[in-house]
Amino acid sequence: MAYTFYFDASRCTGCKTCQTACKDYYDLPLDIDYRRVYDYEGGSWEVKEDGTVSQDAYAYHLSISCNHCEKPACTAVCPTTAMHKDPETGLVLVDGTKCIGCGYCRMACPYDAPRIDRSEKMQSRKCDGCYERTIAGKQTICVEACPLRALDFGPYEEIHEKYGDKAKAPNYAPMPDMTVTIPNLLVHPCPSMKPVDDTTGKVVNLKEVR
Amino acid sequence: MEHALAELPLALFTTIGAVGVGSFIYLCLAIFTHSFGEEGLKRLDKFTLVPLVLLIVATICAFFHLSQPLHAPFILLHILSPMTIEILVFGVVVGFIVVYLLLAKFNKLPAVLRKVLIALIALGAIAVGIFMGLAYKVSTIPVWAAPHTPIMMVGFVLAGGTSLGLLVLKLAKLEPLSQGFKLATVIVMLIGLALSAYGVFSLYTMAQGITTHIANGAEMAAEMFPCVVVFGICIALSAILNLVALFKNSNVALLSVSVILALVGIFAARLVFYGLQISIAL
Ligand code: SF4
Ligand code: SF4
ipTM higher than 0.85? Predict the structure, then answer.
């Protein structure tokens, strides 16, 4: 079984309700967010000979958490096996009874998902796909909170069937090439979304997401 | 710089650990090129506690890196993870040093066994350097996963250990040192200097060429440049003082300054390393 997130970039307005709802539900410390919304912007403008201005500026948002990857970089480096892939659900979870809080999982994850909680739980923390809710047959908090219905979560086959050709492999900036960790994430891109190797844009809200 | 400051305990562990284990390479060279006599060896064993204390300090620094140190035994659960291998190799080498000193203390260390043990410890010191480097073979951070990381750490072990090794010999009043030892020391130290300089240079230039959606390698490298300068000056000055101690005038104060310079230089280089943590994406 593999659960997957679905993100529709053509609907997302970057309002961060998903991020806030998750933070509130799990009562996360100030410096930790399981879900983050990246603002990716780029392009330029040009003044033409006739004095008019043309531009190709763009901006889009990417709401992302842990993607419960099929080839997780975090579990490969975790020295304690605290970071592990649950054989039943395929969700990548942290076993707080083993975690030493070394931070290797955070270093290795190219989605910057795990965070080390040095104020309360003293361990690595990240999205667990709302494990308790999921096994109880409920929907995740972020999906329920999104006012634009830009997020979804469920068994891979179900999500794939539901969105069909709209759901694409997550090979869009600012994410890494999906072959690195094979994330359980499907994306419906907005027209301005750029490929992973794009060099025209950058993340402009780093202070919010780090 | 933000990343470097976040990893201060690790920078201290890898610095003090490298200098501490590195000194045993020079003690090994000394034991293989001299016959110090019973009294001389007693004094040597007494002052060999100095690098052991440094290694204990390094271990304490490593624990400060952990949010949950009481869970540390769980690192044995993933024996092939890069960090587990690093800690195991470091622990085994420190264990050998403790056994070596205990056997010496209880007069149970005949010459042959002493040579075998110190040679194993010296080889272990190089292994510590290699595995301290390989602990950062994280494929999503290419600038760390490159061969220059273990090369640099081996360089720090070889170049950083010189002054501490010579200081232990000086404290134990084991003089005069043979020409063979001096030559071997200079060669090993120069190899260490070359490896560490190559490692830092290669890391720095590779980072300069990386741009991601969130990081500008050239800007990050420029921020770390003062640390590169500190590394270059301190490690070169330490090497010069070691040469003075070997061929001109050796004294405890000079060698102590050299040890401090080596520690400061390698610490600065470690800050550069952690400061240039550039992930492939977020
Ligand atoms: S997104 Fe990161 S933390 Fe989550 S499974 Fe993938 S590699 Fe691990
Ligand atoms: S912080 Fe915890 S989960 Fe992450 S690598 Fe270290 S032990 Fe594993």
Answer: yes
